[in-house]
Amino acid sequence: MLRYLSASLLLLAALHGQAQNVEFTKDEFKGDKESLKNAQKELKEANSWYETDPPRYEQALPHFLAAQQVNPNNAQLNFRIGHCYLNSTYKSKALPYLQKAYQLDPQVDARIRYMLGRGLHLNARWEEAIAEYKAAQPAPGAKNATAQQNDIRKKIQECESGLALMKTPTRAFIDNVGPAINTPYPEYGPVITADESVMLFTSRRDGGVGDEKDPFIGGYFEDIWQSVKGKDGQWQQAKNLGPTVNTKGHDAVVALSPDGQKLVTYVEDGAGDLYEADLKGAAWNKPGSLGRRINGGQSHESSAAYAPNGRMLYFVSNGSPESSRGGHDIWRLDVEGKGKAENLGSVINTPYDEDGIFVHPDGKTIYFSSQGHNSMGGYDIFKSEWKNGQWTKPENLGWPINTPDDDVFFVLSASGRHGYFASSRDDSQGSRDIYMITFLGPEKPPVLSSEEPLLASRAAPVRQTLLAPAVPIATAQVTILKGTVTDADSKQPIEATIELVDNALNQSIASFKSNSQSGRYLVSLPSGVNYGIVVRKEGYLFHSENFDLPAGAAYSEVVKDIPLKKLDVGAKVVLNNIFFDFDKATLRKESTAELERLVQLMTTEYPALRIEISGHTDNVGKAEYNKDLSLRRAKAVVDYLTAHGVAAARLTSAGYGDTQPVAPNTTKEGRQLNRRTEFKVVAK
């Protein structure tokens, strides 16, 4: 039996002869009856919380600790303090109390060896924890022996995973985001816009809408708060989202669309449901249920994430037991379709619980938390990619991002440089705080040891910075396009519809709206697609942009302000999604979507409109040739329109060659802008 004892417990066993259990009796406190009386009062209060069903560990703990100040050498008291800590935010604090309990009385509780294993496990003392778990094996024939053995086997596997993962830590910095967001109260569940400009999170602080405490669990009710980044790149003081979203009860945020215009909240409706709200101008509307296709009557829905196209919603639920892998699983639903939700399958979902789903703006990578796979304890954060029509084997994000405790609700910026999650660490403001993970790169040089003493005997030792080898940082394969939509004349922001089209497939991918008050928009463009981007508003000419992003294109962020022109005579629009074969007037198939939009404009939206189609070139080559080529290209567009129902009398074509440049021809970018097809309103 001795070979199973950890090093720490061998020491405790050696000291056991010196330690003595002290009971809360008059004989033990003959000279201090008042302290005994106060301690017994605290114990009575603590036990009333501890022994209720279900136990109220958070309420019991401060009373147990008060009694422990009077008598630190009571085995039962130390055990119960350790047990309370194991069921708190600060689980790692349980270990010294459990060790003390075992030192005072190895038979203090039948669960002591298992609890010691948990305490060591939560402090990443993997090998010692394994020894304790092995010593905690139930006796043959004991009640629930099989379930206990399975649980211990799982815990040992977690320790073995932790031992392996800790040997190759993830190269990242983990920093508290600071007092603008974190308080002495719990903060958790951060969600961000794709460009990291806005963060929403859940907090149980004072100053909320109800500003009252939950009588059952203690602490303030949850509310949703928001912080925005200032021009200096720092998070600004968080503000409550207000009574439209927050109620006097619990309100938690679980998802934010990449553009920050939609959010999903968790509401204690039934077993727990998901609700959705829209941002209208500067204010959120009241959240409404996401409906029965997601929320089941008796099921619990705890987490959700938007795909970048806004059409697919991923969520976590313990419903549909006939198709569940076990516990809470991750599902996805085409919100614009009529079909049922689809389980992500056994590659992602395990017989244990999954939670905290997040879909990266690249559209192909998911991050989620799981108690299964190769977790090192509780929930760990995992990553999987959609490749060749299936999900890859989930990859543990590793130590120190993951810990032996629960690590849930991780989100990642579109750039892939910064992740955000909640944790309880030494530099917390007082409880669970929100932290930022910086995956190593130029922003912060990787340092293995910030200081190395060279002459330790000196009063002011010389120190040398030791830099770790440079590591290439993989950037996300996504482009963030953002800006403001305005009226071209008044410069005032307007709400417009922004449609993304796959030019190669002539398919609409997604549709968004710019904010009605600010005119701001943000769209995520995963690499590997030739995008047509169309901005529309009734009474205005549509505006088109083209982003041809080859597969593997690295992360970039493009700011593009879009002035929409009213449909007036003389107004011109560049048709950025009309393409020709090189040095020819042959329309490429990628032009189809733009041409069809022009047909719709002429036949359905404005059937009396008359326009001029004009072609333009750069100044490379002879002027006469350029003029002829531009005219032939303009005629090719006119021919397409007449072939699709637009009367020829409403159309004219013109070729201006290089005579009307919109940019200098001295650069590659300028010449590309000059090679264009336009239409001009002649009459309406």
Core attributes:
elongated, disordered N terminus, five-stranded antiparallel sheet, Serine Threonine Protein Phosphatase 5, Tetratricopeptide repeat, alpha+beta, 27% strand, 11 helices, 684 residues
| CATH topology title of the largest domain | Neuraminidase
- The number of distinct helices, counting runs of at least 4 residues, comes to 11
- Our estimate of the beta-strand percent is 25-35%
Based on secondary structure, the structural category is alpha+beta
Shape: elongated
Helix percentage? 10-25%
DSSP summary, beta strand count: 36
Span of the ends, CA to CA: 94 Å
Mean pLDDT: 89
- Assigned CATH superfamily of the largest domain: TolB, C-terminal domain
Q: What's the number of structural domains?
A: 4
Largest sheet: 5 strands, antiparallel
Specify the CATH architecture of the largest domain: 6 Propeller
For the record, what CATH class of the largest domain applies?
Answer: Mainly Beta
Radius of gyration: 32 Å
Low-confidence stretches: 1-5, 9-17, 446-472
Describe this structure in words.
The protein is an alpha+beta fold. The chain folds into four domains: 2-167, Tetratricopeptide repeat domain (Serine Threonine Protein Phosphatase 5, Tetratricopeptide repeat, Alpha Horseshoe); 174-439, 6 Propeller (Neuraminidase); 477-566, Immunoglobulin-like, CATH 2.60.40.2190; 569-684, OmpA-like domain (60s Ribosomal Protein L30, Chain: A), CATH 3.30.1330. It contains eleven helices and 36 strands. The strands form nine sheets. Strands 6, 7, 8, 9 and 10 form a five-stranded antiparallel β-sheet that branches. Strands 15, 16, 17, 18 and 19 form a five-stranded antiparallel β-sheet that branches. The longest helix is centred in the first third of the chain and has 23 residues, at 145-167. The protein is elongated and about 110 Å long.
